[in-house]
Amino acid sequence: MEDRSHKVLLALVMLFLFAVIVLQYVCPGTECQLLRLRALSSDAAADPYRAEDETPARFVPRFNFSVDDLLRRVDFNIKGDDLIVFLHIQKTGGTTFGRHLVRNIQLEQPCECRAGQKCTCHRPGKRKTWLFSRFSTGWSCGLHADWTELTNCVPSVVDSRKEVRLRPSR
């Protein structure tokens, strides 16, 4: 009888350890909302940057944009002289977003893309492009051009074929 009770106790301990291992796999750390006892308190929900041990946060969110900047609406005139310049920042999903710009946006005249070639993104009824990106103009300003390079390069590349008096002010 005693041997059987040891086996039952061992089975319960093994089951408990298995449950703890599964729980750690499914809910690592404190991300599991079921285990956070403080999740229901208003203090924990108010500040997502507060550390669990109440030490000062090492990350302090800073926004370089005002609320008005974030909420402003910009009208893009595809038939005019407006130009979207896509600045690709490496390792941020930029390739996927750049492909989305030329393939998936519903426009009056969508971009024409052929395998292995640049996409042609012309304005409706014109032979001028509305998008400056590596998918539409190639690496016109160099490989992975940064903001400074694009600021200096884009106007000269886009306006190089126009007479000075016909160039839009940007």
From TrEMBL:
InterPro entries to which the protein is assigned, alphabetical: Heparan_SO4-6-sulfoTrfase, P-loop_NTPase, Sulfotransferase
Spans traversing the lipid bilayer: none
EC code(s) of this entry: 2.8.2.-
Gene3D superfamilies referenced in this protein's UniProt entry, alphabetically: P-loop containing nucleotide triphosphate hydrolases (3.40.50.300)
Membrane-related topology note: Single-pass type II membrane protein
Pfam families in the record: Sulfotransfer_2
Main location: membrane
Keyword Transmembrane included in the entry's annotation: yes
Alphabetically ordered keywords of this record: Glycoprotein, Membrane, Signal, Signal-anchor, Transferase, Transmembrane, Transmembrane helix
Domain of life: Eukaryota
A single Gene Ontology CC term: membrane
Subcellular location, record wording: Membrane
Reactions accelerated catalytically: alpha-D-glucosaminyl-[heparan sulfate](n) + 3'-phosphoadenylyl sulfate = 6-sulfo-alpha-D-glucosaminyl-[heparan sulfate](n) + adenosine 3',5'-bisphosphate + H(+)
A molecular function (GO) term: heparan sulfate 6-sulfotransferase activity
4Fe-4S in keyword set: no
Signal sequence, renumbered to the chain: 1-24
PANTHER family in UniProt: HEPARAN SULFATE 6-O-SULFOTRANSFERASE 3 (PTHR12812), HEPARAN-SULFATE 6-O-SULFOTRANSFERASE 2 (PTHR12812:SF6)
Function, in words: 6-O-sulfation enzyme which catalyzes the transfer of sulfate from 3'-phosphoadenosine 5'-phosphosulfate (PAPS) to position 6 of the N-sulfoglucosamine residue (GlcNS) of heparan sulfate.
Family: Belongs to the sulfotransferase 6 family.
Protein name: Heparan-sulfate 6-O-sulfotransferase
